[in-house]
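Marked as duplicate of an earlier ticket. Keeping the data here for the record.
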Amino acid sequence: MSLTLKYSKNLNMKKEFITVILVIIFSSSLLSGQIVMHQAGFRLGYSSGIFYQISSEAGNAEIAYNAMLSFRKNGLQFTGLKVIYETSLSGISPDLFFGWGYGGHLGFMYSDHVKFRGEDYYFYGERFCPLIGVDGWFTAEYRINEIPVNVSLNIKPFIEFTTPSFVRIVPWDFAVSIAYVF
């Protein structure tokens, strides 16, 4: 009986500790002295999906963290990116920002064939293919201040490793993104 009670207390302590850590992480952006901008929107391109981004000023640049769920080849991928917006390049227009970044993705897709070095290899029916990859990010973003909307043209080149053992290199994942700023 005392072993069960001791285990229950340890489990409750772990739950409380995890809750406190999560509250600190999610409220840290609210406690900072910097201006924080949130945006949520959708991306229309090869890897289409929805995203959420949080950004704040850091020196003469703006640093953003982007989380995206994209849908490609009957599958789902989660992408995390760190994006740096160069505010010093806004001399063309005060509302135009150029940015670059990097990150990675994890997910799965369904496929009935793979293409490797110009050759097609076919399976018997569609196959579940887990994947992991590395992403780049280049963007030109126009911020419409009259209404809280951002429109951007972006490219997200990536390299991914997928089972059954193949590597995909996609340098041309172009897209248009539209986001609501809050």
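See parent ticket for discussion. The longest helix spans residues 2-31.
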